[in-house]
Structure formats: C-alpha cells, structure tokens
Amino acid sequence: MEDLLRPIYQERASQSNTKGILILEKNKPISPVTDNFDIILFIIVNEPEEDWYVKHYEFENKSAAMHIVSEKLLTHWIETSSYRRAVEWLINGSIIFERNEYVTDLKEQLRTFPQETRDLKKAIEFSKLIRRYTEAKDLYESEQYLDSFSQMVRSLHYLARLAIIEKGFHPEVTVWNQVRRIEPEIYKLYQELIESHEPTEKRIQLMILAVDHSISKRSTSSAKHLIELMSKREEPWSFGELKVHPEIQEYMFDLSSMIEYLVENHVIKVVPQETKGVGIYHRKYMPIQQG
Length: 291
Description:
By secondary structure, the protein is α+β, with helices and mostly antiparallel strands.
C-alpha cells in the first residue's frame, strides 16, 4: 500500500518546509486510532498556510487519510493531549521521511516525557478530575444517582489518565488497557463501579470515598504546575490574574473548582484583602509551603 501512496508523499517530501512524514497502517478490523482508515499519512510541516489540512483517498478497495499538520499545532497537541490520536501516530508510526532527524528526535522527546510537559498535563487532567468528581458528589447528594454515576465514570477516566502521566507515559485512546498494566489499583476501582452487583447508590457512595482518597494523595504533585507559577512572586494572586495567565489557558475553565479544592485541602491558602465595603474582602491566593 505504501508504494501506491509514494507519489503523494514524495511530492510533500520534496518541499523545503516538510519536517517529517510517518505512515501508520490499520492492524485490526475496527481501528479507532486510524479512524478506521487503512492508512494514515502523517506529515509535519513548518509554517503552512493551514495549521491542519486533511485529505482522504481511496485505492484498490482501501482507504487512506493524509494529515498535514504544522509543527506549532503538533507541539500544542503533545503538550496538552488535546488530540491524542496524533500523539499515537507519532509514537507508533513508521518514519518514511525526515529532515535532520526531526521525527527521530521528537519520538525520543515523547519517550523521555520532559518534566515540564508532564507537570502541565497533570494539571490539565487534575483540574478536569476535580470538576467531574465534585459534580458526581453533588449529584449523589441530590439523589440524582444515574447522573452521578455518569460523572463518576468520567472522574475515573481522568484519574486513570493522571495516573498514566505520573508513571511517565502519554495517555492513549485505549486508556483502560494502559491502566490495567500501569496502575491496576485504579483499574480495579473502574471494574467495581461498572461490574458490581450492588445498587447504583451504594456503588457511587463507595466510589466517592475511594476517589476522594486517590485525589487527596495526588493533590500537591498534580497541582505542581499551578503552584510553581504562583510561587514566582511573593504577592498573592487574584483569581482574575490567574485565569488570564498564558500558562494556565489549557485548564482555565476548570481553574475555579481546582483552586477551591486546593484551598480545602490546605495546598493553597486564602489571603483576604480589604475593599471599600465594610466586612467585605477581596479573596486572593498563595501556595502554602509544604514542609
């Protein structure tokens, strides 16, 4: 199949702004990783007209999808896990062209998973986890058990992704297959929630306790990205200052619930500042020095 596509990717390889080309073939009848295409051609370029260009092909009863992605957008996907398939294409795809060992170096960076990128990803997953967990808990207390169950499943999904990142791996599309190997304790929680014969209400009640414990023991390390940012100055931060900070944009929508959780768990402290109103204070935040 690669031979049939050779004229297509050779044309791209001849262009000076092409950094690398990978190919990934479908290896089972149903393949979410390749969007069920028989072949993925993944082409990384520098400063294209379009950040992400996609074209579909058909040949000899086979299908192929060509994705041309800017280097800048791919870096964003890697740092934020916002398009996991692309990361899997990079990890599992075969290099058919690269300029100055660009793709080889990129694969090595993914394998080593730099700490800075890992901390950002942990903060993103942690903020989503806190949001879903608090929603699950609130719905449970409101006796909305099916909705609470749904949010608890999502909470476990984010907890699983967080655990994978902690171990130095990038979460894949098949996240539970990874967790079963890497963090069997969390996989067991998922099994208990899904497969238990206990009433739904009881399953959620037990899961709230278990997930609360798992979140609590991870809170400081998972919030490292936020804590280190806040520690760069001595003055406390207002929520508005944090929300618009460029380094926090990837988890800004879940920042409020994350901060509230960290305050409740004594990772961040509230610093009240007087306003013109009597008895009304601005609420600002500072990290608590962990000893």
